[in-house]
Amino acid sequence: MRRGRWRTLGGALVRVILVWAVSTLTMLALAGILPDFRLRAGDGDSVTEIGLTAAWGAGAFGLLSALVWPVLVRALLLVPALVLGLLVFFLNGSLLLLALSLIPSGRGEVAPETAVVVAAVMSAVASATSTALAVRDDEAYRRRLHRLADRRRRRTRHKGAPGPGEAAPGLVFLQLDGVGYETLRRAAGSGLMPTVAGLLDGSHRLTAWRTDWSSQTGASQLGILHGSTFDVPAFRWYEKDTGEVVVCNRPTSAAELQRRAIARTGDGGLLTLDGASRGNLFSGGADQLALVLSVSARRGRANRSRAGYFAYFCDPANAVRTALSFVAEVAREIGQSLRARLRGERPRVARGGLYPLIRAFATVVERDVVVAAVIGDMLAGRAAIYADLVAYDEVAHHSGPHGRDTDRVLARLDRSLALLARVAEHVPREYRIVLLSDHGQSPGETFLGRYGLTLKDLVRAGCGLPVSRRAGRTPSGAEARAAVLAALHRPVEEGARAHPGRGPDPVVLASGNLGLISFPDLPGRASRERIERAHPALLATLANHPGIGFLLVDGEVLGPGGRVARLDEPGAAEELLARFGPGAARAVRRTDAFPHVADVMVNSAYEPGTGAVHAFEEQIGSHGGLGGEQGRPFLMWPTELSEPEPDLVGAEAVHEVLRRWLREADGPQVPLAPPADGVEGAAGAHGAAGVSVEPAGRPVEEPRPGGGKSGSLPSAGVPARDEIR
């Protein structure tokens, strides 16, 4: 054992020396290339003296990066994450200036602007060298993973805790946001996603499931994580009783939706026992949170949602590598957008402004941070991990769900899956990886692009209200935009009025190819007769428009040519909605029973032959309503778990399947006690932290597997490796 320990120490020392040597050579090369960077006191310095100066500078820079960088990052905990990203190069350059100032005889000298370049190159080279050495030595990588896991176990060890090999298998749920069933099959079959293809050929099985009418992340993820999609009619909707617009990717709205779901189910969520929630809209009851929107409105150090950024960026190599990848992704988006314009590709939407930065945030920053957090959770041995990777969904909205742009994103997601699968082979606990999606994406030209006006313009014209001569654009609301705003400490969705105000003007909102129309001056839910009295031409104008498939108005479905089907008449709605696929009438009927359903629900036209819909937002790949691939996400599970029921319908059904798999792995999950009158807020507040609520509203810590307590495990985050790029 002593010989093996010395061998391990010797191998680590050799790797440190090799990284130091490469860093020294890099510094020498940069000193020869850059005019404002020198490593000599005068012209009389020998080659040996210059080499020793470079070695001293490289060693000092490496030591400062290891010791000082984490302290700097922790000191900047309250700085918005994107601002920290912009500070990466400045901070790294400052460390280099400090390192050069420590060289004897003042031999090191560099201009501040050049120091930024030198520090970035040296960090990237050192990271690449270290990673290459670890990749070449699988045993060294395995030992490193076990070392990190042992360190975490020692910090969290308590009496009665299970030792290595004693814990039941854990579950990792990876959500590939927006990747539909058919899209995944095509990508695996064409070789675009070899990791997924390999899993399907051996250890995993794949099936499709159907969403409810609201085929979007807010409804689906709330149902998957918290077991309820009740009263979530769309991505955004107007509530007459409060006069507020609820938006699923607004942090305050997400927190309220989570509270309502917990109050309805009496359960903290899928991840209540020893769980981690990464990159999601909702917590799922997890105690370990990173990049979770429902808690991101909290300010101060208590907000653990943003802690994932700092756990990742505390390594300067991670920070530089991700920053460089971020810049490359911005350039890639600008190039792809320019190519689409030059080729005259149709359909097409505007991709300028801040969109290149938002895309790079979703496809690089969020991906790297979430993957690193999941690796940390696996090293810590957490029982249940749920993570959302939003990259494909964000790019598909603007580039379309099928094409070269999204193919590249799918390939990079597959590399992330490959990395996590390799890590799973080295962690101390066995993990079963489940892949799933929350919805798909349907292609098609936007409603504005096809017909020259927005849904809001059409509604105002049907109501006899003035319409702007210049067609306005409906902002695209996606999960990545909300994540960026949360990272910037701007919790309110841009362009969305939280309180439109009461008056004669209708409130018109869009959720992909689903539109919602509410009349604030008509109390309660307006019937067809009341709407026709107030606005005689509106419903006919909408129902007969070629870009609209059908309307829902207080228990009635209105189609083209004056067709009307009551939902309580057997078969009538099924016949009118047949072109929208099986289960369409059931989905509409369920939404009709929601307390906050809009006065008029509008679903765009759908062409079954092409699968095309017309989004009421600026999206050529959309989801939110009925029609095409958007309503057919996938579920992919290892064969050790029981088969899900055939023909899964709704996110609530998926929640039950995932709960069953957790029980199979580690026994039953303990739900929250039903809240007593007047303590719904307590249930909502404590459910997100994995605790139950007594009738008096006092939180009670629930036991973790092995005798642990809620909150006994620290936040984890380790550097993601280069394979994720």
Short note summarizing the structure:
With 725 residues, the protein is an alpha+beta fold. It contains 24 helices and 24 strands.
Could you explain how this protein is built, in words?
The chain is of the alpha+beta class and 725 residues long. It has 3 domains: 128 residues, no CATH class; 279 residues, Alkaline Phosphatase, subunit A; 157 residues, no CATH class. Helix content is 46%, strand content 13%. The chain has 24 helices and 24 strands. An 8-stranded mixed β-sheet has the order 8-7-9-3-10-21-4-22, sandwiched between helices. 51% of the residues are buried.
Which descriptors apply to this entry?
3 domains; disordered C terminus; alpha+beta; 725 residues; Alkaline Phosphatase, subunit A
Strand order of the largest sheet: 8-7-9-3-10-21-4-22
Kindly, what is the distance between the CA atoms of the first and last residues, rounded to a whole number of angstroms? 38 Å
User: Can you identify the CATH class of the largest domain?
Assistant: Alpha Beta
Largest sheet: 8 strands, mixed
Uncertain runs are 134-139, 157-162, 491-496, 669-725
| Quaternary assembly | single chain
